[in-house]
Amino acid sequence: MNRNCNGHGRRDFLQTGLSALGGLSLTEMLRHRAEAATPAGSDTRCIFIWLDGGPSHYETFDPKPDAPDGIRGDFKTIPTRVPGVHFSEHVPKLAKAFDKFTVIRSIAHNQNNHGAGNHYLTTGRPTPVPVGCGAFVTFHPSLGSVVASDRGVINGMPAYFNLGSMTRSGGPSFLGASNAPFVIADNPSQTNFRVRDVSIPKSLDPERAGSRRRLREELDRLTRIQESVAEDPAVAFDSYYEQAYRLVYSPGAQAAFDIGKEPDTVRDAYGRTDLGQRLLLARRLTEAGVPFVSVHYGGWDHHGDIFKKLKDDFLPKTDQAVSALINDLHQRGTLKNTLVVLLGEFGRTPKINPGAGRDHWSFAMSVLMAGAGIPGGQIVGATDVKGYYANENVYRPEDFAASIYTKMGIDHGQVLHDTANRPIQLIDRGHLIKELFA
Amino acid sequence: MNPFFWRLVAFLALPVIGRAGEPAPASLSFRNDILPILSGNGCNAGSCHAKQGGQNGFQLTIFGFDPAADYLEITRNARGRRIFPAAPEQSLLLLKATKRIDHEGGERIKPGSHDYRILVDWIRQGAPLEAPGEPSLQSIAVKPARGSYRKGQRQPIEVTALFSDGSKRVVTEYCEFQAPLKTFVDVSEEGMMQVGKTPGDGVVIVRYLDQVAVSRVAVPPDRTLPKSAYASLPVHNEIDRLSWKRFAELGILPSKPCGDAEFLRRASLDATGRLPSPGRARAFLADPAKDKRQRLVDELLADANWADHWATKWRDITVGNTQRIGVKPVYLLDHWIRRKFQENTPYDRFTRELLTAQGSSHRDGPVALFRDQRDPEMLSAYVSRIFLGVRLDCAKCHHHPSEKWSQDDYYQMAAFFNSLKSKGQNFISAPISGEPEELWFEPGGKTSHPVTGALMKAKPPGGSELPIPEGTDPRAVLVDWMVRPDNPYFARAVVNRIWGEFFGRGIVHPVDDFRESNPSVNDELLTWLAQDFVTHGFDLKHVMRRILNSALYQAGSLPNETNVADNTNFSRSLRRRLPAEVMLDAVCDVTGVRDSFDGLPLDSRAVRTWNNLLPSVFLTTFGRPDSSADCPCERMLSPTMTQALHLLNSEALVSKLAQSDSLPAKLAEGPMPTPVLVEELYLRVFSRLPNPEERTIAEKIFPASGDRRKAAEDLTWALLNSAEFVFNH
Lengths: 438, 729
What we know:
The structure holds 2 protein chains of 2 kinds.
Chain A: H1 26-35, E1 45-51, E2 77-79, E3 86-88, H2 92-96, E4 101-107, H3 114-123, H4 143-151, E5 160-163, E6 182-184, H5 206-219, H6 233-248, H7 251-257, H8 264-270, H9 274-287, E7 292-297, H10 306-332, E8 338-343, E9 347-348, E10 360-361, E11 365-370, E12 378-380, E13 382-383, E14 390-392, H11 397-407, E15 415-417, E16 423-425
Chain B: H1 3-13, H2 30-40, H3 67-75, H4 92-97, H5 114-124, E1 137-143, E2 146-148, E3 154-156, E4 158-163, E5 168-170, E6 176-178, E7 185-187, E8 192-195, E9 200-208, E10 211-219, H6 227-231, H7 238-250, H8 260-272, H9 278-286, H10 292-302, H11 305-318, H12 322-325, H13 327-342, H14 347-355, E11 359-360, H15 367-372, H16 376-388, H17 407-414, E12 420-424, E13 437-441, H18 474-482, H19 490-503, H20 523-535, H21 540-549, E14 576-577, H22 580-591, H23 617-622, H24 641-649, H25 651-658, H26 663-669, H27 674-686, H28 692-700, H29 709-720, H30 723-726, E15 727-728
Parallel strand pairs in B: 2-10
Antiparallel strand pairs in B: 1-4, 3-8, 4-5, 6-9, 7-8, 9-10, 11-13, 12-13, 14-15
Helix pairs in contact in B: 2-5, 7-20, 8-10, 10-21, 11-13, 14-18, 16-17, 19-20, 19-21, 25-29, 26-29, 27-29
């Protein structure tokens, strides 16, 4: 009995067959998809910004100016676009753009080390066994892999990109290699940056690439077994090569990869930093139809010297890049179908340690969410006056993941089957964060 | 709800049970009457109320494995609001199930239906858990239990429940039906079999509450072939005789034997994970001797690369994630496995040394297994699956949904691992190795059943209880049982795993999922292979030699008109993408330029990588197992789009080719005449000589004089991007 609770099969998704769309350009394809009777959210893309290490909620979106010394921290607060709501003084651009996003101050959980916290927040499930702090583990498919498996590859465009280092638990688990992220570790703020593997290698002139292609077609002579009952994997191999070529020779897709096409003013607005240019590339990829782009920004594990590091480096960079992304999407009219999420695996301890740092604290964290119908200028939930615990409208990582899936048009209660064919619910008891669906 | 109140209600309600024209059900019980209705209507499916935490606050046990808990949930929990004895039809249970009030699961039961009336009557009778002295369910019988059917035939299944008092009841409508091999037979929710169009053996699995039974389906071919068609087939060894016998039943013939070049390439890749060198290829192709294939097989099995190649496969199923158990233990276990394969340790001894390990995680390789599979429960599932081919995992929490395994089996197996003690740091902050953990056997461990609390005696699945002599490590007793010559699982599991590596799938498939409801495609063959393996001292190389020398393994990959639809009986060689490490090593061999890996000496081959998290875009793209999975054994061999992109466009591959010391460059700059150079590249990548047409195309791109490097690079690139390279065929 594989039907799920509301009577649908587990993969009643819109699946646009490639064969049906053979000759369409990417734009036509996107228009086609948009016009099809798609379930809510199925055209929504997501830019998932992962602050690996766990950003402090105090120094970002949940300052506690009235907390005692030793908790309050060095930073002052500033007013935001919304009267009565204050952020840290070091995110002024985000404070100004607050009319376009929601901050959830009340996500809490109990996985207080990096390995487990990463897994919980990027897959929506805690690890089934305890894992070490430094662990890179995958027991359940990540948000990006599930979206990739739902949407599939279109004209050779991978459905899930990971910009920067591979996020620890960002893999496909039992959904298989075809739903693994396409990782672009290189830094797009460098002048010689290129997205790997998607274009003709730079060292090869186009003419030579073309003659190589022709030579390959002439010499690839292994007889294909055309009868579909034979299930010849070489036939599948051909279709992937066909898609790959379509990507390589699609001007639209190639333009998306070429961040150099962006005017200098825009590149400057995002900041000429790794994060800034990755977010800009993420915007270009989502606009070209990629449904899920995860952007990795590590180093937020500030056990020492937190104020200096945040003030001099992490916060200005984040403030500029993320506010630029949200404003840019808004101006381009694409924020309405682009979900922007900013978070790490947990918040940080109330008490400032002797090294002027804050340690891991999973009982409260702040998450920024924008786009895809999420109201602007909204604060969801709260922590207590000293910032120890989320204590109003408290949500779990399951609720967070369920809300993202719902925004993406994916049933978070669906039952998947692991490699042993055991049924596993995508998200266990996820309740939507209702404030995101106002 | 006050029990007295219920009795009162029941008393008052009694006179209205009987209805005209219908016998009054004497006394209904939750166990025997209600639970089947809940199951039959999917209420306690894993995706509905039986999922973790239930659905909407209402939680049932999966497949009703704990009737007492379900009874409590329905009659008492949520302040007893789910049933309303005073007005049974107004019970929440019925309002929901009939969707008279909002129910996410929709209308499961029609008002007025048979099920509906039973539920109403049961509530009216006071909703008893069981009727006094009622019989208990013993087993189910499926009719037909086996049969031979025409292609496309439809056949209803009838299921009868047998009770302790000898009574019977037809329960077909409350059963769940599954057909795992849909090519041969499919089944509707109502139990109607639909026989497929391909000859072979299928199975329909029937579940009624916690009982499982199977109906076996044989689909003979429309026409069989005359005996003479098989008489002329070559028989190299018993594998062939038993395979042709099975093929005769299925009406299929094996594909024509593969050519020498194809055999050379296939056998080299399968046995050693390496392409043959051009020199070896030339010599082999030119060798007129009749026994050259046998000699090649012996050479390959004696090749130094054999050990690393096969150690990698055992590492896949044995070694955990460095991030969970530490770098050093993973390194030591990897090293231990490689050494055991270098020594060609008999598999019984390998298993004994691994499964009875004691010592330090930072000194003794095999201890890492117990650092990863930490408790008796994990070991129960892991050892059963890897060494016996039995998947007990599901039976940890409930009766296996499609097999005979129960929680008893699971915890009895766990009891072999209950006398292990450990001390030291158990899980660690990677990438540091952490402190060592000592592991040792200490008598006196106990394992109890999670529901009944009963003390479990050590018993392997499908075996009988094994007495554990005083002071003996139960793990050693388990291994003694495994390696007995008549053990029904151990040898079959490993020969099937080896078979799967050579043929792309097991005789039982998946290779570690032996069960009645997953029949093998050739039982006689599997049994013979296992016996032959045991008789020959558990020697893995012996099994491999048998396989490599068989005419079956040496069949071609192109279908004939009888076997184009056969993807399971090995009547033609199935194309398999090269595994990640093998493919990367082949690319490096062809280009003459190595990759470098963290933590390995310069110029190491990919097959030497000792953990699956070592960074490598190539290996990640072509798939390594997820070493943090419960069983780190899945290797995805399907082609993907990102693989195509990587081979087509990767700067790494282009620069390997363009390097001045690359092999194609060196060849191009050397004195070799162009036709020989083309041959050399064909031999390197495809292990064969080009045919005349290919020669013409390839030679055409070379300039008559001057720099030949570009042409050599382009040709190598084109060959590497061909299906003939990417697949073993």
